[in-house]
């Protein structure tokens, strides 16, 4: 049974995660995207991509989806700092931010979330490798979608992100995506 204090602390964390639905991914502003995706939108598709990659790579899809779901949750506190900005800032580690976020949550919740974030940040398992590739592949796919919308400056982000992929499955999916329309999935039903 959970006491009221831990219940409130756990709900506070859940409410904080709602901010991810309103927080934009700021790196896309650099390439001129006026209304970029939210952090929650990015994390959702990253978790789906991670599950698919895990199935292809022989990793645990549920574990990868969990790692992907929590990989950017710290951005409620520090924002989405684009890579160009990170070279000028010294920020707390994602593990430290997470510890603050869950400080008042039920101990089981706090320990579980902290373990997930620590594994994503420091682990070297196949699941961690796949989760990192899922994050990059999602960014690449989003960049391709922005290219379709006329944001030409997204090309460099697409290419540089693609070059960082490590797993054979992520590379194969990236190759397949290069010449596809984001509406390709509809073609089956339009025939």
From TrEMBL:
It comes from the Bacteria. Its cofactor is Mn(2+); Co(2+). The keyword Metal-binding applies. GO terms for cellular component: cytoplasm. Residues 35-149 form the HD/PDEase domain. Its EC number is 3.1.3.89. Keywords: Hydrolase, Metal-binding. One of its GO terms (molecular function) is 5'-deoxynucleotidase activity. The keyword S-adenosyl-L-methionine does not apply. SMART domains: HDc. It is an enzyme of class 3 (hydrolase). It catalyses: a 2'-deoxyribonucleoside 5'-phosphate + H2O = a 2'-deoxyribonucleoside + phosphate. Transmembrane segments: none annotated. Homodimer. This is 5'-deoxynucleotidase. It comes from Streptomyces hoynatensis. The lineage of its organism: Bacteria, Bacillati, Actinomycetota, Actinomycetes, Kitasatosporales.
């Amino acid at each position: 049974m959970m006491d009221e204090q831990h219940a409130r602390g756990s709900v506070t964390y859940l409410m904080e995660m709602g901010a991810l639905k309103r927080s934009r991914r700021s790196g896309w502003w650099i390439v001129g995207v006026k209304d970029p995706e939210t952090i929650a939108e990015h994390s959702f598709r990253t978790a789906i991509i991670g599950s698919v990659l895990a199935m292809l790579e022989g990793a645990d899809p549920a574990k990868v989806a969990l790692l992907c779901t929590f990989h950017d949750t710290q951005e409620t506190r520090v924002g989405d700092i684009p890579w160009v900005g990170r070279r000028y800032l010294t920020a707390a580690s994602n593990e430290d931010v997470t510890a603050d976020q869950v400080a008042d949550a039920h101990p089981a919740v706090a320990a579980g979330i902290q373990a997930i974030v620590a594994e994503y940040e420091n682990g070297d398992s196949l699941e961690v490798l796949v989760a990192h590739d899922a994050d990059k592949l999602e960014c690449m796919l989003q960049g391709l979608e922005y290219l379709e919308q006329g944001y030409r400056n997204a090309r460099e982000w697409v290419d540089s992100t693609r070059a960082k992929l490590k797993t054979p499955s992520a590379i194969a999916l990236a190759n397949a995506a290069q010449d596809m329309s984001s509406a390709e999935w509809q073609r089956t039903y339009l025939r």
